[in-house]
Amino acid sequence: MMELMNIVHGRSVLRPIQLAACAVVLLAVTNVAYADEPLTKVDAAVNRWKTLDFSYKIVTTQPGAKPSTLKLRMRMRKKGGNNQQMVEISEPADMDGTKILTASPTKMYIYMPSFGKVRRIASHVTEQGFLGTALSQRDMTLTHYGTYYDSTTTADDSASVTLTLTAKPDKNAPYPKIVLTASKSTWMPTELRYFSDKGVHIKTETRKKYLCSQGYCCPTVQTLVDHTSKLETTLYLKKHKINPRIPGKVLAKRYLLR
Fold it and tell me: Is it the case that residue 186 has pLDDT exceeding 80?
């Protein structure tokens, strides 16, 4: 609970986490004229949905510390070129009822039952660890890579392609560089390596055991390793619905108080 209070007040989380992971702010596909480019295919595959309703068990480990577990429900929809997201936490018990709304890339809010109020999350905190995990809020909403990055193919074979993504100078990209490997059977990412502005490999994310439904494939196991803090977070997909009806009120600020 103290960790959440630190987030609300714009301070760092308790652990010295210097990162930002998984899977889920979305912008429209750019430059459709290059439909055969690998990055365009990846973006199209990753964003082949209108709404999502996912439930996760999230386990985080760190050397010398007891593993921690979160259980949450995440609902998302596309609106106005952005990805809106409502996260509702059910475990651990002292966080039950906590809700986090991503209304836009710059507007994020949190509600904690112990405070009984909705508070805005400071923008710089979105780049830090999400509730003690190796994920950041920006990691959870980054899915449209072509909006933020230019791409160069660095490896290509019959099964997969590896792309080096370099941040566009006029975009506020989460990372200066990402090396992304995607499977050619689905065009979904299987590994992402994240780099700092000094070229240091700071995080590695793997996505495995994809499950495909209604033309969209999602990983049922995602693992993010932060090589700086030594945190390792794995998301296990427990329930999922592709393109369910999500009432607009669920992704509104006032819903946080319900």
Answer: yes
Residue 157: which CATH number?
A: 2.50.20.10
Q: How far apart are the first and last CA of the chain?
A: 20
Cβ-in-10-Å burial (0-12, 13-18, 19+) of 56 comes to buried
Q: Given the structure tokens 């059977």, which residue do they identify?
A: 185
The owner of tokens 């590695």 is 204
| Cβ 193 vs Cβ 178: under 8 Å | yes
- Let me know: does 122 contact 10? Beta carbons within 8 Å: yes
Q: Which residues of 186-221 are buried (b: 16+ CB within 10 A; e: fewer)?
A: bbbbbbbbbbeeeeeebbbbbbeeeeeeeebbbbee
**pLDDT tops 80 at residue 245:** yes
Say whether pLDDT at 62 is over 90. Answer: yes
Instruction: Name the helix (H) or strand (E) containing 147.
Output: helix 145-148
Q: Which amino acid is at 127?
A: E
Question: How much is the pTM?
Answer: 0.81
Q: Which domain holds residue 26?
A: 2-257
